[in-house]
Structures are given as structure tokens and as C-alpha cells.
Amino acid sequence: MSLDYNLSKIDNWESLCKTEDGGLSSQTEGLIWATLVVDMGAITEKNWTKFANRIKAHESLYGGDKLIPRNENVSLDYIVQRHIGLTTNVATTTAAAYKKKLARIAIDRIPRDIREGL
User: Fold this and answer.
1) Residue ranges in the chain modelled with pLDDT below 50
2) Could you give the CA distance from residue 24 to residue 20 in angstroms, rounded to a whole number?
3) Residue 56 pairs with which residues in a beta bridge?
4) 65 close to 78: Cβ distance less than 8 angstroms
5) Can you give the pLDDT at residue 64?
6) Which of 43, 25, 34 is nearest to 87 (CA)?
7) How far apart are CA 98 and CA 13, in angstroms?
8) Where does 1-118 have alpha helices with state H?
9) Given this model, what pLDDT does residue 61 score?
10) Are 36 and 90 contacting, i.e. CB atoms less than 8 angstroms apart?
11) Considering only CA atoms, which of 53, 103, 104, 112 is closest in space to residue 81?
12) Are 31 and 79 in contact (CB under 8 A)?
């Protein structure tokens, strides 16, 4: 199944989401792929903080690996909020289902982390 997305409802989407050569900006592309990871198909005015918090939880679980490229001068909250209007064909799950998914990932990591001496 393909990952389909729509950027047209994002304010100033052409300047925010596109590069000079017409490709997607790294932050926009990262957010599109992040919808799969955080199990949320859209960033809305109502849910953008939840979306950002799910990304933070995922990044914390993976030891700081960043899903969305950024530096210390730009917060994840700012990036996500600027992308309000992004939609994809990813099904949104409840907070409880997402927490259960994170718990499964954490439990599955424990044996590997022990083997690697972490």
C-alpha cells in the first residue's frame, strides 16, 4: 500500500514544504513518514500537540534518533505546528493503542540492549 499525502491545506505550503528544485523539504518529508510511526494520519489545529508528543515519545524510546531533521534553534513543536493541514492515508489510532505499541517496542528492545551491553 502506498503512503499518500496532501499538503494543499498547509498555510504557505509551497514555500514551507518544497525545496528550490521542487522536491519536498526534509522536515515535510520527515513528517509525512512520521505519520506511519506515530499512527496519526493528519496534523490538525486540534491534534498537533499530540502528534508532536508521539514523535517525542518515539525519539525518546530510540535514544534520541530524530524522526524530523532539526537543530537546537528550531523546536519540534514549531515544525509540527507549521505543518497543520498535512493529511495522509494513515489510520489514526487511539492514545491507548499507541502507548501499547510503544510498550511492545520497548519490551522487544530489552533483550537486544542487554546483548549489546547497553
Assistant:
1) none
2) 9
3) none
4) no
5) 66
6) 43
7) 28
8) 13-17, 26-38, 48-61, 76-82, 95-115
9) 85
10) yes
11) 53
12) yes
Element housing 88 (H / E): strand 87-88
Cβ neighbours of residue 34 closer than 8 Å, sequence gap 6 or more: 51, 55, 67, 68
Angle at 98 between CA 2 and CA 51, to 5 degrees: 75
Residue 88 CA to residue 30 CA, distance in Å, equals: 13
78 vs 96: CA distance, rounded Å: 25
Alpha-carbon distance of 42 to 62, in angstroms, equals 23
> Identity (one letter) of the amino acid at 86?
L
Residues in the chain: 118
- pTM confidence score: 0.88
The residue to which cell 492515508 is assigned: 89
Q: Give the three cell numbers for residue 76.
A: 519540534
pLDDT value at position 15? Answer: 95
What local confidence, expressed as pLDDT, does residue 42 receive? 98
